[in-house]
Structure formats: structure tokens, C-alpha cells
């Protein structure tokens, strides 16, 4: 009798362990903090499948602060440009080569990123703070994904396709709340270009409702 009870208890524990968490934590097992990318076989995949994989890895890296992993995806020749809002200004938006990004990644150097919509206040922050507080202002690992399509859109000019006409992009969209009439939505977009058979990020564009 005791032996049967013990077996039943063990089976019960194992079955509980197998239940999946409806909101699992972001896995960082595949995020290698090294100079190697995790998508070495990416060229065998379709563009859409490959960029969905890369998009998710970028989100995971930013969420947990693995900015050195993010750096591995920066375009080797064109670098990466950060736009605070949907309108991309190549003359004013902050741009980093991969080497500069790695140089300032843990630096206390303050950069001017642009001006806040509405107040016009100049937004200044270190690179790491910008990534944490602006780029990832919401948990985009729980967002709605789209490929080469915009889900988020407001009254601000979105010139992404004009500025990057031959590029692919991904969008991570978080709908606005009913309480605020849906206007508190947010979107994070990654723009990609191919180089030597792999896709690299050339732009990080945030978008939200503007006045």
C-alpha cells in the first residue's frame, strides 16, 4: 500500500512539473554573450522566418540587458541608427557603428537623442539608459508581431519605407488601453539589411501616439 502511494505521489509531482506557464519568462539560454551570432544557419531559412527569429533574439537581449549580444547584429558597414519616433531623420538621429556601440555600451557618456513630442524637452541619456528606458519602455516580448507591415499608426509622419526602401523590417506592437482610448499604444521596429548572407540591423525605430 505504501509503495503504491509513493508511486502515485511521484507521478502527481511529475505531472505538475509538465504544466506550462501561460506567461513564461523570456528564455536567455540561446543568448550567447560572445562574438558569435546564434543564427549561423540563417541563410537556409526564408527571409521572413529568419527575421522573426532574429527579431525575437533582439527583444530578449534588450530585455535582459545583454547589449553585447545586440551588438552582434549591428550591420558591419552601415552601423545602426536610433529614431525616437516614426519619423526618421538621418541628419539628427543618433547613429553608431558596431565599434562605437561597443565602446559606449557601458559608458557614462551622455548623448542627445532628440526632443520629446509635446513638451519639446531635449532627451539626453547614456546609451544603456536609452535602450532600457526608451527603446524598451514596454515589454515588447509580449507584443503583436508583424513583418513588413505597420500595425501601429498615429498622426506622426512615418517615413520608414522612404528612408529604407530596399530593407525589410519587423514591428512589435502593443495596443493601447481602453481607458486611454487606445492612444497609449507603442511600437518597436527593427530594420534589416542583408550582408554576406546574413541579416543585420540598420535601424531601431520607436513609435507611439504623438500630439
Describe the structure.
This protein has 211 residues and is α+β, with helices and mostly antiparallel strands. The protein has a single domain (41-208), classed as Nuclear Transport Factor 2, Chain: A. Helices cover 28% and strands 23% of the residues. It is built from 6 helices and 8 strands, in the order H-H-H-E-E-H-E-E-H-E-H-E-E-E. Strands 2-1-8-7-6-5 form a 6-stranded mixed β-sheet. It has a two-stranded antiparallel sheet with strand order 3-4. Strand 3 and strand 4 form a beta hairpin. The radius of gyration is 20 Å and the shape is globular. It starts with a helix and ends with a strand. This is Lipoprotein.
List the defining traits of the structure above.
8 strands; disordered N terminus; 6 helices; alpha+beta; two-stranded antiparallel ribbon; 211 residues; six-stranded mixed beta sheet; Nuclear Transport Factor 2, Chain: A; 28% helix
Note the run of SSEs as H and E. Answer: HHHEEHEEHEHEEE
Q: Total strand count, please?
A: 8
CATH top level label: Alpha Beta
Radius of gyration: 20 Å
Mean pLDDT: 85
Biggest sheet: strand arrangement? 2-1-8-7-6-5
Low-confidence stretches: 1-26
Shape category: globular
Question: What's the number of structural domains?
Answer: 1
Beta-strand residue percentage? 15-25%
Assembly annotation: single chain
Percent in helix:
25-40%
Helix-strand blueprint:
Blueprint: H1 2-17, H2 47-64, H3 67-71, E1 80-83, E2 94-96, H4 98-104, E3 111-115, E4 122-125, H5 127-135, E5 144-147, H6 160-163, E6 168-174, E7 186-195, E8 198-208
Amino acid at each position: 500500500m505504501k509503495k503504491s502511494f509513493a508511486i502515485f505521489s511521484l507521478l502527481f509531482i511529475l505531472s505538475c512539473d509538465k504544466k506550462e506557464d501561460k506567461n513564461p519568462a523570456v528564455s536567455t539560454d540561446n543568448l550567447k554573450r560572445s562574438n558569435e551570432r546564434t543564427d549561423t544557419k540563417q541563410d537556409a531559412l526564408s527571409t521572413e522566418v529568419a527575421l522573426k527569429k532574429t527579431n525575437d533574439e533582439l527583444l530578449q537581449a534588450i530585455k535582459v540587458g545583454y547589449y553585447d549580444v545586440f551588438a552582434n547584429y549591428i550591420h558591419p558597414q552601415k552601423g545602426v541608427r536610433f529614431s525616437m519616433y516614426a519619423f526618421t531623420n538621418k541628419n539628427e538621429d543618433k547613429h553608431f557603428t558596431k565599434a562605437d556601440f561597443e565602446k559606449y555600451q557601458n559608458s557614462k557618456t551622455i548623448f542627445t537623442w532628440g526632443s520629446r513630442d509635446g513638451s519639446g524637452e531635449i532627451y539626453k541619456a547614456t546609451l544603456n539608459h536609452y535602450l532600457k528606458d526608451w527603446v524598451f519602455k514596454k515589454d515588447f516580448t509580449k507584443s503583436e508581431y508583424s513583418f513588413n507591415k505597420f500595425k501601429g499608426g498615429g498622426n506622426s509622419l512615418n517615413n520608414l519605407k522612404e528612408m529604407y526602401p530596399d530593407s525589410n523590417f519587423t514591428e512589435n506592437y502593443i495596443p493601447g488601453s481602453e481607458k486611454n482610448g487606445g492612444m497609449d499604444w507603442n511600437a518597436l521596429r527593427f530594420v534589416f539589411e542583408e550582408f554576406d548572407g546574413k541579416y543585420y540591423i540598420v535601424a531601431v525605430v520607436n513609435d507611439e501616439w504623438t500630439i
